[in-house]
Every structure is written in structure tokens, then in C-alpha cells.
Amino acid sequence: MRASDEKLAKALHDAELHEMAAKAEAGYYNEFFGELVLPMHGLMADLITAGTPRALLLVELVKRGDFDATDAEAEEWADSLKQQQPMVRP
Length: 90
Fold this sequence. Notes:
Blueprint: H1 3-14, H2 18-25, H3 39-50, H4 53-64, H5 71-82
């Protein structure tokens, strides 16, 4: 599990949002490797939908950037792009 996913999952477990934590553990909300185009927006929407006081506190932490991808994750993503085969035009 990547560092940002682990940090987010722990915060979600602490807030008793275990289903969301499982998604975080799987990388669903990861800025570079997740399934969402705008993962932090999706995360905030899910937290607002949960609506608990602890979930709404986490929204503020997301806005502050507490769960953003790390520099190492950004480098990992950039390296993965370098390894892709270039597109060849016919």
C-alpha cells in the first residue's frame, strides 16, 4: 500500500468509515493510481455523503492537502509513463 493510501485509510478507520477505508487501502482515492479522475473531489463527496461529524472534519483535512499523494508516488507515476511504449503512427 502506498503511503498516502495508508494515511488516508487509517484516518477513515479512526472515523469508523470502514468501507471507505477499504477503498483507500485498495488505492481507489489515490491521485495517481486510483480509478477516479478527480480523486480528492470524489473522496470529499463520499465524506459529505457519510455526513458524520468526523467525516466532515476529514473533508477539511482533504481540502488542506493532508491526504495528497507523496513526492515518491508522483515520481513512481512519472517513471511508469516513461516505461510505456510510444505510440507509432501508421
